[in-house]
Amino acid sequence: MKTLIAIGLILLTSNIVVAATTGNQTITLDQAIIKVLEHHPQLKIDAYEARALAARIKLASLKPADSIKVEVEDFAGTGEASSFRGMQTTLSLARVLELGNKSTYRSNVVKQESYVLGELQNAERLDLLAETARRFLQVVINQEKVKLANEALVIANNTKDIVEKKISAAISPTVERYRVDIDIANLQLALEHAEHELESSRVMLSSMWNDISPDFDSASAELFRLDEILTIDAYAQLLERNPDLVRYTTQQRLADARLQLARIKQKPDIELSGGIRYLNSSDDVGFILSANIPFGTVERAVPVIEEAEMLNMIDPMAFEQKKTELFSTLFEIYQELLHSKTATKLLEENIIPSAQQALQDYEKLYSTGRYSLLELVEAQRTLLNSRSRLLESVANFHRYLIEIDRLTGALITTGVTQ
Known about the structure:
Number of strands: 8
CATH class of the domain at 27-220 and 236-321: Mainly Alpha
Mean pLDDT: 82
Structural class: alpha+beta
Low-confidence stretches: 1-23, 412-418
CATH architecture of the domain at 27-220 and 236-321: Up-down Bundle
CATH superfamily of the domain at 27-220 and 236-321: Outer membrane efflux proteins (OEP)
Radius of gyration: 37 Å
Strand order of the largest sheet: 3-4-6-7
Number of helices: 10
Helix content: 55-70%
């Protein structure tokens, strides 16, 4: 199960729709990821948010709207203004001239906001793909648990056959039959529980693409194939791709854009208006022109600039703090990853082969009466527990690798080559 998260992002952002194969009843990780990219509601929400911000960019780039003003004066009053004879009618067109090309700076701020949103959405997609890999992995693990439960039941039934032969030969007491029957009943319960957990994990996986009725029976994966581990330094270098760190860099550019906009607002906006005025008393027409220039824009902009400058100082420090936190998390997970691989190797190469050989010897010698049923059952449990520990060790390896890949924004490698 080795699939690039980057491939998932490309599938999401491209115009090519890839349909997951549903003809068979076995699902692979790449098919699960495609289903998530096509059907998860959050990704549809992200698309609408991106479109909404694109509309804001268009709005921010617009200059202030022109306005038409109609003004009627000196009528319906008292004295000479009691009639319409002295009425004056003015028609004017007003336009605001933004000095310093403010619309460009405004639109740049919103563009940077869109980049921040894009990084947030990339992080969400990465989380979705990582969670998909976790749930897919859990299905594979639960499938193996069902196999182990069935294997334990087979061993117990074989033991019962041996016990029955010894009871028939009057070598063992009848009470041993009850002991074996109890073990078989407990193992049947364990198998039933494992099957229920498998069903639950299948639903948990299919819910990632908004489907509560799984259309697959099993997950295809090479669980016991472990990928090579990079050095801690190599993983540390990949931390630069972590979505949270990338977002801090994008937020820094946004803070810079806001600071530039705050500084440019020191330049005043000039409102110019011009038009014609009709004098009803003399039936004459005159032109008018006016300019409105505000004062104090520099002083009013100073607090805004100071605020933007202070906020601009936050992201670099937050970046370094986050990077340190991520490295400490990476280091801790990396140590667990190494331990899981070491434990897996010891279990596969030493512990399990020894437990298998010991069980074979106990079975032979139990048949001849040299060992008790209790000793035989203990040997069986040692082997089964070793295999359970192997499964848990392998599962932990893939879990830790998923977390490292999530931290580095790299591959989703959960050990299954497709």
